[in-house]
Amino acid sequence: MDKKRRRTESLEKEVAHRSPLAYMLKPTAKYEHCGILSEKFNFLEDFGTGYYEYHSFDGLYISICDVTFTKDHIVKIDLLSNILELSFLIEGEQIITIDHTDDDLVYESQESYMMYLAKVSGTITYHQRKRFKKVKIQMDQTFIKKHKLDEEYLVFNQDTVDRSQQHFTKPQDTKTQEILSELLLDTRKGLLKRLFLESRTLALIGLQLEDTNALSANTTTDQLIKKLYTIQGIISSDISIQHSIQELSRQVGLNDFLVKKEFKHVFGTTIFEYTMQLRIATAQRLLIHSQKPIYEISEAVGYKNATHFTAAFKKAEGMTPKQYRKMM
Q1: Does residue 300 share a domain with residue 276?
Q2: Which of helix, strand or coil describes residue 77?
Q3: Same domain, 253 and 187
Q4: For 119-147, what is each residue's pLDDT tens digit?
Q5: Domain tally for the chain?
């Protein structure tokens, strides 16, 4: 019992060490099983409204933060150990200042980064009355060596990190957003939680590395790519809305021709085809996992006329929605 208590206390110290927001939190729940520590905290009223969730095992540390701060906060960061950090800012903004560097790093909504950090110190600025929602994954040498990441990707062995604004962040793609949604909604515990978190972490690392290779070969500017991912996010956020290319172009400040050309260049499909695939995929999930009538599913995926929806679904899947539901 003493051994288990000492382990729990050690893991709790890890929470405080790895989160610069620890002093703002009060614990609300704790669960430890199969070597994984899961804890949930609420923010103290003086600092903000929201929660902080933390999971730790075998050199992997995953945190989820969702809060609206009551005032601006400048938080000190002082990382003493070397880690690989994978971060996804779902909503909000951070201003990151690294000691002994000239420029601040601006980290914005729907962006992500993966860095090998070696003894970093500085500050992070959070803004008041703005929702801040982030998933952060940290991996120490135990996790890195277990999956041989240091052997395959030499970038993880760097003593210094290129922290220039140009290479600091990249937009989140649809696959990444889907995995993040799974992480936010998951309720597993114990061994199942361990397996789930480890598999999703490895999937996210793979996507980050794929994006890095793809973007390095692409001559399109970083700013243009970010705007194209913004368009992708607008479409994905509510597929019941019919967006025109002209409307989407105006929202991101690009001309219609450039949007059509570069969207296909980056995503390998046209905006129309991408929207259609998203609607059919959503309809399939609703047909399988809900009892909604066909006409309601039709409206939910952006078709005001159920007949048009049935025709589009049959063209894509070779059967009507009713036949698909019966078969599945």
Answers
A1: yes
A2: strand
A3: no
A4: 788 999 999 988 999 999 999 989 998 98
A5: 2
Q: What's CA 52's distance to the chain center, in Å? A: 16
DSSP for residue 159: S
Query: What is the model's pTM?
Result: 0.64
Look at residue 249 and tell me whether its pLDDT is greater than 90: no
Instruction: Find all residues with CB under 8 Å of 267, minimum gap 6, and list them.
Output: 228, 232, 274
Cα(first)–Cα(last) distance of the chain, in Å?
50
* Residue 248 · residue 255 · CB < 8 Å: no
Q: Taking a C-beta distance cutoff of 8 angstroms, is the pair 268, 214 a contact?
A: no
The token pair that represents 238 in the structure block: 């509510």
Q: Are residues 119 and 245 in the same domain?
A: no
Residues 241 and 187 placed together within one structural domain of the fold:
no
The domain of 147 spans 2-216
Q: Return the pLDDT at 165.
A: 41
- 248-255's contacts with Cβ under 8 Å and 24+ in sequence apart are 252/227, 252/228, 253/227, 254/224, 254/227
d(CA 64, CA 155): 26
Q: 250 vs 196, which has greater pLDDT?
A: 196
